[in-house]
Amino acid sequence: MLYNQLAWTYDLVAWLVSFGQWAAWRRLSLRHMRPGPTLELAFGTGGFFVDMARAGYRPAGIDQSPFMARLARRRLHRHNLPAPLSRAQAQFLPFPAGLFVNVVATFPTNYIFMDETLAEIRRVLAADGQLIVVFEGQLRGPWPLRPFIDWLYAITNQRGFHTLRPLSAFEAQGLAARWEMVDHNGARARVLLARRQ
Q1: Among 43, 140, 143, 170, which residue has the fewest nearby CB atoms (within 10 Å)?
Q2: Digit-coded pLDDT (tens) for 49-68
Q3: Is residue 1, in this structure, part of any structural domain at all?
């Protein structure tokens, strides 16, 4: 429901559950991106798409939800930006092979680990292309908030998420992957980086 009929609440929900840090976590992926054509998987309401366009990348995006697509197109129109958005699944990308220097996903669901998704990502990546996935934002705050934040991580089983997903799934599809903690301007997130082998 959150991705469809309730898509209009998505930005608010993301802001609330992240104590306002959601957008900063997403933008950490910009630190790893190279200039050139970029594909965003599951563009959602288009917030990060705007960030990429303003930073000089040439983004295209896919999302399955017509509700998200409508919101994203409106946002891009408000910012006078082109809207090269497609309704598609990550397992069937409507792009030619080797087109993208970057493929980016922020806080994806389990579709990102599917063999079909990883095979398609590898297909559309340029020879020196890379996959950048922001998986796990880490809440920061002043000392009085830290015990509460630690408690939230404990009850939601958020810490250590990366150890539950072996990198062998990526390597089996020809993507050499590694985990990295990215920390910039007070935002911190666990990012998966993968390159074509």
Answers
A1: 143
A2: 899 999 998 899 999 988 88
A3: no
